[in-house]
Amino acid sequence: MAKIAVMLAEGFEEIEGLTVVDICRRCGIEVVTVSITDDKCVMGSHKIPVIADDTFKNTDFGNIDMIVLPGGLKGTQNLEACEPLMEKIDEFYRDDKYIAAICAAPSILGHRDILNGRVACSYPSFEGHLVGAVVSHNPVEKSDKVITGRGMGVSIEFALKIAEQFVSSEKVDDVATGIVYR
User: Fold this and answer.
1) pLDDT of 19-68, one tens digit each?
2) Cβ–Cβ under 8 Å, residues 150 and 140
3) What is the DSSP track for 114-158?
4) Is residue 181 one of the residues assigned to a domain?
5) Does 103 qualify as catalytic in the annotation?
6) Which among 132, 180, 123 is positioned nearest to 154, based on CA atoms?
7) Which of 19, 40, 104, 144 has CA atoms 20 to 30 A from the CA of 133?
8) How far apart are alpha carbons 170 and 45 in whole angstroms?
């Protein structure tokens, strides 16, 4: 079974992170939320505290198939300032594993030369950070094993695109229908 790690940093956009958790779990995908600090309680951008499943230093990334980076300005800045996470992102890229980022967070991938030659999208004011990418204004883009989304308003579509990588399109369609999305 596939396993996804949703990284949580203070100031993360709650809907962007937790929608991925909800949709992917509905699809039968194992999802772990991971705090980048030693504290499992992570305060979101709208002052909603979220208790992560685990901390970065206690997470075995050897059995993780995808890392997801939610946006939120402060959350994105805190994710990018976490050097062990950046090393893990680079490792996932080198190992051709899935990486997904939404809203401001695709800027991290641009700064790390992961978007070169790929079609990618982000929150409009962060498009200049998509270094090397062919910038798209579509809600969600998948380019090889990199998935990007524009912002909170496309969180469900972003989560469904992530799920499509690990379960059948029929399962994804069933979940989308069940939540009255399609």
Assistant:
1) 999 999 999 999 999 999 999 999 999 999 999 999 999 999 999 999 99
2) yes
3) --TT-EE---GGGGGG-TT-EE--SSEEEETTEEEE--GGGHHHH
4) no
5) yes
6) 123
7) 19
8) 34
Question: Structure pTM?
Answer: 0.98
The C-alpha angle with vertex 35 and arms to 100 and 128, in degrees rounded to 5, equals 40
The strand pairing partners of 69, in sequence order, are 101
In the block, residue with structure tokens 């379960």: 167
Number of domains in the chain: 1
Question: How far is Cα of residue 54 from the mean position of the Cα atoms in its chain?
Answer: 16
| Segments forming the whole domain that contains residue 124 | 3-173
Q: What is the CATH number of the domain that holds 104?
A: 3.40.50.880
- Residues 181, 26: contact at Cβ < 8 Å? no
> Could you count the other beta carbons within 10 Å of the beta carbon of residue 70?
35
User: pLDDT tens, 86-141?
Assistant: 999 999 999 999 999 999 999 999 999 999 999 999 999 999 999 999 999 999 99
Q: Which residues contact 67 (CB under 8 A, 6 or more apart)?
A: 4, 5, 7, 61, 88, 89, 92, 97, 98, 99, 100
